[in-house]
Amino acid sequence: MTSFIPPGPEIRRLFHSFEHTAYRLEARDHYDAGYENESMRRFLAGEPDDLPWMRTWLDMLREVTAKGRRFARVRVVSLPLNDYSRFGVWCAQFTNGAGEDIRYLTSDQADAVDLPRHDYWLFDSRKLVRMLFDDNDVFLGGEVVDDADEIVKHNYWRDAAWHHAMRRDDFAIGQHLGRV
């Protein structure tokens, strides 16, 4: 059985209600959230930015990780990196600094270990939320999946991705990404 969670307060509650770990696999090369467009423009132009759209997320990360909970994420990226992925690597320094551990895996590496091509959150290794997007990369909401076999499979994929992924700083250096 599955249920749908629309974007908004119900999804946000998941980030405050887990007990131990929240893990995300990001399998897309681009996301259109809209709110970060000005920051990405500034990044590409080499202009300074204080990332106002990210403050709530960073505050939440600090609050939740101060309580001993763990946020981890693996981003699957194509090489060479597109502008959006370069911007994401730059932004990851701030989320990592706030307590989230973001790592990187190339698409070729992800294919070699048969990772899925969909995004998901896994909370406490037992609550699976598959992220849904439209054809324009806009987030539509999450599908809560209750099937035990699917949850086990996504835990396996989490472990495989984490094992092969590279820490953000090492990845940035390895890609010779100037200002990131």
TrEMBL record:
Any matching Pfam family = DUF6879
Q: Which residues form the DUF6879 domain?
A: 10-172
Which InterPro entries does the protein's record reference? DUF6879
Q: What is this protein called?
A: DUF6879 domain-containing protein
Organism expressing this protein natively: Embleya scabrispora
